Amino acid sequence: MTTAIRQAEGEEALDHFQVGSYSPYLFFSSDEWARFRADTPLTLTLDEVHRLRSIDDPIDLAEVRRIYLALSRLLSSHVESSQLLFEQRNRFLSTNASKTPFIIGIAGSVAVGKSTTARVLKELLARWPSSPKVDLVTTDGFLYPNATLVRENKLNRKGFPESYDTAALLRFLSAIKAGQQNVKAPRYSHLTYDVLPDQHTIIDRPDILIFEGINVLQSRDLPRDGKIVPMVSDFFDFSIYIDAEESLIHHWYVKRFMKLRQTAFRDPNSYFHRYATISEEEALTIAENLWAHINLINLRDNIKPTRPRADLILRKGENHLVEQVALRKL
Ligand SMILES: Nc1ncnc2c1ncn2[C@@H]1O[C@H](COP(=O)(O)OP(=O)(O)O)[C@@H](O)[C@H]1O
Ligand SMILES: CC(C)(COP(=O)(O)O)[C@@H](O)C(=O)NCCC(=O)O
């Protein structure tokens, strides 16, 4: 499907984000964007990219060169400037505080490819000449356990704002930003479709933390009782939204589900094991239902409305390749 046809079908293009004649974004085609990589070296091999990509994501070295090297260079400027600003403020305030992690948020729909972007960025950033310590945390570990979701009749709201322990999310980010040592991030298993009880990843004062999840750009409700509650993105120094037209993400979700039947679902420990043995037609119906009744609704109601809050939007086209980049003006 060409971009022109998709637009004719009513999907808004990124350059429609405007307030009157002002748009808060600068827009680039992927080829225009690629030029901003300048002399940034390619530090990943094809084998490494293959290891980092998720099932069904065709990202290759050409895509890393086209999109991710410029992004790595841009992030390097942001991290450097934040370090400089921090030092200037230390002088201004006559303090001697230590710099705390630079946090990058990555948002977007289920099945849009956030994990691949996050893992590729993590590796590229860690290979900067300054060798920063880069950690990656996904928000699924902060979901309530299935037992709680079942008890509260919310299992079919998995991924919706109410399915996350928001207080734990905010406590985690605030500990990271406070520069605390050995902060615990809870873990989730896509195999068991549940949080892993008592399993944590320890995050120990990284230079950069990538925080990835469908709802990380969500805004809070209006304050009640005059009490202002922070939101996850208050802790971000830079945010990225991975975008694509709904019909493409739908296609990617169903295709991935059908592929997982041949791989992950075959494992008897997989929550979805029963879907590995049913007929192709029945499996398609299940995937379509999961998409239509959970993930599409969440995309429309909770995820897509956060897109205009991102510093950078990567708009993917067919084959998961980025076609357009929108960068928020300073
Ligand atoms: N049911 C599943 N079984 C195994 N892996 C899964 C399952 N669902 C998703 N995944 C994997 O989990 C990761 C996160 O998926 P998702 O939350 O849809 O975000 P995204 O596709 O944007 O990375 C991906 O690497 C995906 O391949
Ligand atoms: C676990 C997820 C909510 C993603 O969580 P995230 O890491 O983005 O916080 C998602 O992959 C999911 O399982 N959604 C529920 C509907 C479904 O099974 O597709």
TrEMBL record:
<keyword id="KW-0808">Transferase</keyword>
<keyword id="KW-0067">ATP-binding</keyword>
<dbReference type="GO" id="GO:0005524">
    <property type="term" value="F:ATP binding"/>
</dbReference>
<dbReference type="InterPro" id="IPR004566">
    <property type="entry name" value="PanK"/>
</dbReference>
<dbReference type="GO" id="GO:0015937">
    <property type="term" value="P:coenzyme A biosynthetic process"/>
</dbReference>
<keyword id="KW-0173">Coenzyme A biosynthesis</keyword>
<dbReference type="InterPro" id="IPR027417">
    <property type="entry name" value="P-loop_NTPase"/>
</dbReference>
<protein>
    <recommendedName>
        <fullName>Pantothenate kinase</fullName>
        <ecNumber>2.7.1.33</ecNumber>
    </recommendedName>
</protein>
<dbReference type="GO" id="GO:0004594">
    <property type="term" value="F:pantothenate kinase activity"/>
</dbReference>
<feature type="binding site">
    <location>
        <begin position="108"/>
        <end position="115"/>
    </location>
    <ligand>
        <name>ATP</name>
    </ligand>
</feature>
<keyword id="KW-0963">Cytoplasm</keyword>
<feature type="domain" description="Phosphoribulokinase/uridine kinase">
    <location>
        <begin position="103"/>
        <end position="261"/>
    </location>
</feature>
<dbReference type="GO" id="GO:0005737">
    <property type="term" value="C:cytoplasm"/>
</dbReference>
<dbReference type="Pfam" id="PF00485">
    <property type="entry name" value="PRK"/>
</dbReference>
<keyword id="KW-0547">Nucleotide-binding</keyword>
<comment type="pathway">
    <text>Cofactor biosynthesis; coenzyme A biosynthesis; CoA from (R)-pantothenate: step 1/5.</text>
</comment>
<comment type="similarity">
    <text>Belongs to the prokaryotic pantothenate kinase family.</text>
</comment>
<keyword id="KW-0418">Kinase</keyword>
<dbReference type="InterPro" id="IPR006083">
    <property type="entry name" value="PRK/URK"/>
</dbReference>
